Amino acid sequence: MKNSSVLAARGIGKTVKSGDSELVILRDIDLEITPGEALAVVGASGSGKSTLLAILAGLDTPTTGRVELGGTDLFRLDEDARAELRGRLVGFVFQSFQLLPALTALENVMLPLELAGNADAESLARDMLSRVGLSERLRHYPKHLSGGEQQRVALARAFVVRPKLLLADEPTGSLDADAGADVIELLFRMNREQGTTLVMVTHDEGLARRCKRIVRLTAGRVLA
Amino acid sequence: MRQSLRMLARDWRAGELRVLAAAMVIAVASVTSVGFFADRVGRGLARDAHQLLGADLVLVSDHAFAASLAADMEKRNLRSASALAFMSMAIVDGKSQLAGVKAVTENYSLRGQLRVAPAPGAADAPVEAGPPRGKVWIEERLVTALGAPVGTRLRLGDAELEVGAVLTLEPERSANFFNFAPRLMMNAADVPASGLIRPGSRASYYLYLAGAPRELQAAESVLRDALERGQRMETLETGRPEVRASVDRAQRFLALTALLAAILAGVAIALAARRFVQRHLDACAVMRCLGATQSRLVLLYGGEFVAVGVAACAVGAAVGFAGQQALSAALEELLRAELPAPGPVPALQGFLVGLALMLGFLLPPLLQLKNVPALRVMRRESGRPKGGVLAAYGCGFGALAALLLWQAADIKLGAYVIGGFTVAVAAFVAVAWLLLRLASHPAVTRRVGGASLRYGLAQLRRHAAGNAVQTTCLALGLTALLLLTFTRHDLVQAWRRSVPPDAPNRFLIGVQPDQRAALAQFFAEHRMPVPELYPMVRGRLIAVNGKPVRDQDYAEERARRLVEREFNLSYMEAPPEHNTVAAGRWFTGAGARELSVEEGIAERLGWKLGDELSFSVGAQPFSARITSLRKLRWDSMRVNFFVIAPPGLLADFPASFVSAFRVEPGREPVLNELSTRFPNVTLVDVAAAVRQAQLVIDQLIEAVQFVFLFTLAAGVLVLYSALLATEDERRREAALMRVCGASRAQVAGSQRAEFLAMGVVAGLLATLGAAGIGQLVARKVFELNLAPSVELWLAGPLAGIALLSFNAWLSSRQVLRSSPALTLRDAT
Fold first, then answer.
1. Which of A6, A11, A141, B660 sits 20 to 30 Å CA-CA off B591?
2. Fold of A36-59+86-219
3. Taking CB atoms and an 8 Å limit, are A53 and B292 in contact across chains?
4. Test the B interface: residue of A25, A77, A103 with most B CBs within 10 Å
5. Cβ pair B196, B156 in contact under 8 A
6. Mean pLDDT of B581-610
7. pLDDT digits 0-9 by tens, B663-675
8. Alpha-carbon span B627 to B640, nearest angstrom
């Protein structure tokens, strides 16, 4: 493993019990992602791409193999230490946005900064929301925002902590074509501006082609 | 903490905490106000019960008190009044009648009311002071006997005094049962002129004291040490047992109310907390994803809960205080007395109750929140709180139970209510689950027509466990409401009946054996029921189990007084109708050497079944073993005996006979005839005592009714929280049904069917619960008999059906008003 890599995975396998038999979801996956690189993980439904993303983020544990995030072996850490590492290095964008319904757009973006104890949370969050074009929507609750707007709030929340690595799980999966295109433009622009490393799971080939590198998963294996 | 407060503000604004906070506020408010009420009313009752003594403390002496004593007491910030009681002939135009004279200072009485009327049978009114100089107030019986209406001049010794009013109520009257001569009350300043009190005259001197508890206590200990021969002290404790019984019962009623409020509060908080957790699972997963550690989450939410809890407790205590202030104003009117100022303890108690409820019911779900895996952000199905729920609620319930026992300050009542509650919860869950499964069994659903009805019933099966829990909560809320409405009413009625309106109001004492037949004939002639005559033998207790009895062996003042006095012993073959044998067995035969003892006195004097008691009657001793303990109702106003023997044991001793009977209003002249025909027989008027006891009970009932309202509010909140608990899930399902093509009628219909089935089950369970708990409390705690109530059995199930039908209507209206797309989007 090179020291320069942001994220490295070696021999990742994931097996789950299904009744009496064992179901193999991922099999012997190696990945190395260098700083600033944009990687798309594509594959059909059930190919294991979301599980791979969850393991890379330390949200799920592999049956075999190891993941290094920023040079730290993720699964040697306990759950809490992994959460802390995520807080420092990783930003997330989900298909279902995952905004907190009780919080306004501004407060949703402030949340990771507040958790990190950042005193300038509000001004940084305002700034980030204006960068995603939502300066007029600061006080709106998620339920009063369109899907595209919600995903832009989620992008602002992901980028506001200036993560080294952004993990995106089907970021346009819940959006119509126009809103999806807007969000993707924004995602790539901010990725460029901040020099963030991007790992994106998608089944959209067009979207995948915008990344420098594409990894194809079929039945839990990386296609050569 | 800052972040916690920020989260609190956000959750509050979003309405996430309102139900929880409302539950806490109502919980604390109801517990506090009930606490304040119980405290104030309890203290008020204790004080008002002193009305029966006419003071807080009474010194009685057979000789005059030192002149300096009253002044000493005034220096101790105690108010004092005095009285002198003696027997004398009152004479009007040559007619004379023995009167129980009581000469009082003008500030008599310190506690309790004197009431007078302008003429016999006229409406009476309270008066602030005793009779002025030159006037006497006489009892109706004396007015009749002497033919002396108001305005008549009456001679008493050398003095001539004017009848100023008819005396209808005097505080001590009931406390001194055996003031058998009709009362004549006069001003103490007129006594010297009468020349009736000379050295050696038989008279009782009374010194009445009233004041703040602390000063009283100090004075009491000083006075007790200084008591001379022939002097004694009377407090409420040494007063009449039937009044004590009523006060105790009222306090148990109040404690019961407080217990119910606390239980309901716990249920409401548990429901609100569960909903909070359900709605915050995603937020926790996101925060875990954003780097929050488990301990961070515990601190964040713990801080939020503590802040909510403290604020809600403070608001609740304030609301409770304000509520009881407003209500106590109304209550004082009803009690016709000023309640003592509220102390700080109930507020503190309410606050602690709130915090304990919060820790008991909020911390367990908080621990569930911290365990939510971050993976839930990607896979929603992961991270449902599992396991530990039972343990969590067990922990909450444990906290609640400990607290209730503490608050009830009555282990027996607390144990019954908590035991009843625990059994009810377990039984409710099991029965609800079974009934709901039964109602939704394919064999049943196949037979019902209508797709929506079928779907609704099938839903019951799909959510069997959740619905059973929800139905149980609903049943608990309803149980409380039924208990507080129907059962409370029945209990109150039963209590009111405990002094029956036809209770005896006259005692007949000193009937000689050879007068029994003539007396029976007298009653028959006057078409009055012939009262039962009980033999009475006076004996002194000399030994217990062969060990001589000395009064200093008893620590308790009341016990000492009991053993000092002569016992009124009686003998009979069968136990009196109004007594029940509580332990042991009744006499084996008329000649057995056995005794039956009242269980209260046995407990006070430490007597057990099998103990041998020795009495001396005159100079003749006899011994016998206790073979039964009797339970009897002191407030029955019937003749009661502490110790009863079989006829063979006592029949040879000289005995007189006693009886109790009722004289209907208007037939009092018969009593004068009775006195003339049987001059040696003493007629005791207990009508005043009955009246006073009834008055006290009525006052207590008024107080108790008010306190129930708070618990009722808590019950309503439980119902609301229980209904709200599954609202989110039902809205989502209804939206899905509509997406799948269900018509509005079908959605509404299926919700109706589901809720209706739950309503029937909850209503039935609540009825069973209320009836069961009511019976248990009535029998075990209040020692009353409660007849089964038809109304309860009608109202319970109907209330369940009505409540859930209304909820189904509200719920489907909400679901149908918003678009399914919006509902579903909010739910994701």
1. B660
2. Rossmann fold (3.40.50)
3. no
4. A103
5. yes
6. 88
7. 887 787 787 778 7
8. 18
